[in-house]
Every structure is written in C-alpha cells, then in structure tokens.
Amino acid sequence: MYSRLSQLARHLSRPIPNYAHRSAASSLTSSLVHPAPASIMAAERQKAMIHTAGCIIIGDEVLGGKTVDSNSAFFAKYCFSLGIQLKRIEVIADDEAEIVEATRRMSTTYDMVVTSGGIGPTHDDITYQSIAKAFDLPLKEHTEAFERMKRLSRPHKSQPDFDWNVPSPALNAKKRMIILPTDNSRPLEDQVVFVSDELWVPISVVNGNVHILPGVPRLFEQMLMGLKASLLPRLTDPEGKGVYRLLFSTPLAESAVAEYLTELASRVEAKGIKVGSYPRWGKDRNTVTLVGRDLEFMESLVPEVEKAVRGHRVSTEDEDDALEADNNAEK
C-alpha cells in the first residue's frame, strides 16, 4: 500500500506538460492546415448571397458637425441599385470600444457591412486596429499595398526630403494605412481587395463581410464601384438590375390618400411591393411611390394609382415644381 502511494506521489509531483504552449511557426502551420471555426465561418460568409447591408460611418468630425457625411447616402443608392436591402446606418466616434461593438454586431446581423473613415496616418485613425481587436486578429503590414503606395503616391510638398527607404516618423505614419487586420488561416487575397490599378488604397475585408473603406467621398465612391463586379454573382439578381421605384406626383394631402394607400399596400405586399408616401414641405404636391422588383406588375398599377391620388407618374420628385412656380406666378 505504501509503495503504491509513493508511486502516486512521485507521479503527481512531475511537471505538468505545457500542451498550450506552441511556437509561433507551429501555431501558424496548424492554423493553415486546420483553420479555426471562426475562419471557416468567415470564408463561408464571404461567399454567401447578399440580401442585407449595414453601414458604419466613423469619425468625430462627422458627429461634431465639421464634416457633412455624404458616403452613407451614396451607399444607400448603391445598395438600392443592386437590390440589397440597406437595413442600418450608424455614425460613431473615433472610439475603439464603439467601433468594436458596432462591427461585431453588424457583421453578425447583416450579409455585408461597409465602414467609412478612420484609416489615415494620424493618431486618431484607429479603425484598422479597432476592427482587428473586434475579431481577435493581428495587424500585419501588407507588402503589396506598401509597394503600390510607393509607386502611386507622392510625398507632400512640405516633405521635400522624404525617402521611402529611410526610416522616419513620416514613413511610420504612412505605413499606418497599410497595416491591416489579417487572419493567418485564410488566403490573403480574400482579405485585401484592390479595385483599380490606379489606386494603392486597399479594401480590407474582415470576418468575411466587413469592408473597411476610406472616408474621403471620392475614394469611397470609386472603390465601391470597383467592388461591384465581385458582388454581382452573390446577388439575388445576378444581373444587378436591383429594385425599381415608380414616383407619382399628387396634389392631395397625405391624409386624403392614406386610406387608399393602406389598402393598396396590403394588397401588393405578397408581390414584394412597398407603397410609400412622402410630404414635400412647402410644396403644393406630394409624392407617392411604389418600390419592388416586379416591374411588369408595378407598371400595371400605374393607371389605378394615378386615378386614386388624382396625380400622374413623374421621373423625379421635383418634376412638377417648375409648373407649380408658373401657376403661382400667374396668381
């Protein structure tokens, strides 16, 4: 009995093997051979059909009124043209906790997420590091993006002595823009997208569906348009026809057409058609809309709607404004 107890004591006194410890190289090799569940889900998410989208505008300057955000409006029109339902737009501060929370939540909730802003060279540009933290990813310098930056960008005139090959604070600041969240277990080409040979700025794709874009409107718009071709195969309508919107100009008040529009909305809901009513403050005419994918069915409703709202179909909301102005002038 004593002998067995002694053997047990000696066994328990041995150091416990550190199974959790692995070298960085062995961990990377293991992750490439056996991707983590999160990486597998990210890969699946990046190939899934796109039905819904969310947009996160990041920047203290927007919240402080210094900058007027136009990117969310552009993205809304972009989604509409592709038939993607834009479900949410949020404007948040340059705050790590807010960026982490918003990107995690939207990535889980929507098929496609776009962020705008916070990827410049200064201390308050924290989008990359915050989104990396949101999904437990390291930040790595992207070699191709850096080579593109050196080839396609020019130092500011206030930096005449700047040298790409000489370490300096200015070089470190520029490199902040190409140090990206990177999942070592996934192909790099799936995580970094270059939409034009003329642009060095990459679209960093994190967790399979979070697309990190710059806040500069010209770049934001150009990069989204460059991304369009890769999105088309993942849309309900692969030809990218999107949805249609028919506009009607009516001289009637919203309250006068409310009963009819309520009945119409109930009747066409099964066809995926949405009915809208929009007052035009300070104008004599309001707007009624039909929005949906079934253009033929929507066209068949035009005579009925025109009669019911005592109006007519128009191409733009302000189409009748000139006529209205003339009529008012005659009075």
From TrEMBL:
<dbReference type="Pfam" id="PF00994">
    <property type="entry name" value="MoCF_biosynth"/>
</dbReference>
<dbReference type="GO" id="GO:0016740">
    <property type="term" value="F:transferase activity"/>
</dbReference>
<dbReference type="InterPro" id="IPR001453">
    <property type="entry name" value="MoaB/Mog_dom"/>
</dbReference>
<keyword id="KW-0808">Transferase</keyword>
<feature type="domain" description="MoaB/Mog">
    <location>
        <begin position="54"/>
        <end position="234"/>
    </location>
</feature>
<dbReference type="GO" id="GO:0042726">
    <property type="term" value="P:flavin-containing compound metabolic process"/>
</dbReference>
<feature type="region of interest" description="Disordered">
    <location>
        <begin position="308"/>
        <end position="331"/>
    </location>
</feature>
<protein>
    <submittedName>
        <fullName>3'-phosphoadenosine 5'-phosphosulfate sulfotransferase</fullName>
    </submittedName>
</protein>
<dbReference type="GO" id="GO:0047884">
    <property type="term" value="F:FAD diphosphatase activity"/>
</dbReference>
<dbReference type="InterPro" id="IPR036425">
    <property type="entry name" value="MoaB/Mog-like_dom_sf"/>
</dbReference>
